[in-house]
Amino acid sequence: MNIENMSEERDFDTVNGRESTVDINTDENVAGTHHLNQVLDEDDLLEKANAELQEQKDKYLRLMAEFDNYKRRSARERVELSQTAGKEIIISLLDVLDDCDRAEKQLQQENNTKDLSGVLLVFNKLRNLLQSRGLRAMESLHTEFDVEKHEAISEVPAPSPELRGKVIAEVMKGYYLNDKIIRFAKVIVGK
Fold first, then answer.
1. Spatial separation of the C-alpha atoms in residues 191 and 189, rounded to whole Å
2. Residue 85 phi, psi dihedral angles, 5° rounding
3. In a domain, 150, yes or no
4. Are strands 6-13 and 18-25 parallel, antiparallel or unpaired?
5. How do residues 23-73 score in pLDDT, each as one tens digit?
6. The domain boundary residue, chosen from 54, 83, 112
7. Which domain, by its residues, includes 44?
8. Cα distances (angstroms) measured from residue 80 to each of 13, 177, 180
9. In CA terms, which of 5, 67, 177, 187 is 20 to 30 Å from 14?
10. Distance CA 124, CA 119 (A)
11. Distance between CA atoms of 46 and 58, rounded to whole angstroms?
């Protein structure tokens, strides 16, 4: 018997007329089912179990909500990625598209007698291909100047009062890719 953890209590048995010993756990640091001075109540145990169950339910609900948010965010990012997958290539083709527009204007001004339908067909094919990928030209001419869409290169006196604060000329077209601006329009504004 361990003397540090146990103490003997001597008790005299009056019925048999002899002395008996009873071991009592007096060290409260020794593991046991409960402390000798603490009386466990069934209601306390039930409340403790219910509180723990509620805590586990709360953790489960939070985890499920977090997982749902993750799924939504992943789906949204996947859709965004598929819509803008060729963004860099389309941006690099904008310069080619600008050159096509300038060449088409030049050919129309010269009024060549040669058959230009082949060249115009190639230009239109390029435009249609880019439009099918979500590219859309920004309409800026004679609209209000908007710093969110336009980049002002210069301000010139407006030819008429109704063109004050509006875009008079478009130096370089702006473009949207699936409703997101990928290039701002460079414009001249009337003052």
1. 7
2. -60, -40
3. yes
4. antiparallel
5. 555 556 655 555 555 555 778 889 999 999 999 999 999 999 999 999 999
6. 83
7. 39-83
8. 88, 11, 11
9. 5
10. 9
11. 18
Domain end marker among 83, 110, 140: 83
For residues 79 and 91, membership in a common domain is answered with: no
Render 141-188 in DSSP notation, one character per residue. Answer: TTSB--TTTEEEEEEE--SSGGGTTBEEEEEE--EEETTEEEEPEEEE
Instruction: Say if 30 falls within a structural domain.
Output: no
Measure the CA–CA gap between 1 and 6, rounded to whole angstroms. 7
- Total domain count, the chain: 2
Both tokens of 163, joined, read: 């063109």
Structure tokens at 117: 């339908």
pLDDT digits (tens, 9 = 90+) for 86-103: 888 888 999 999 999 988
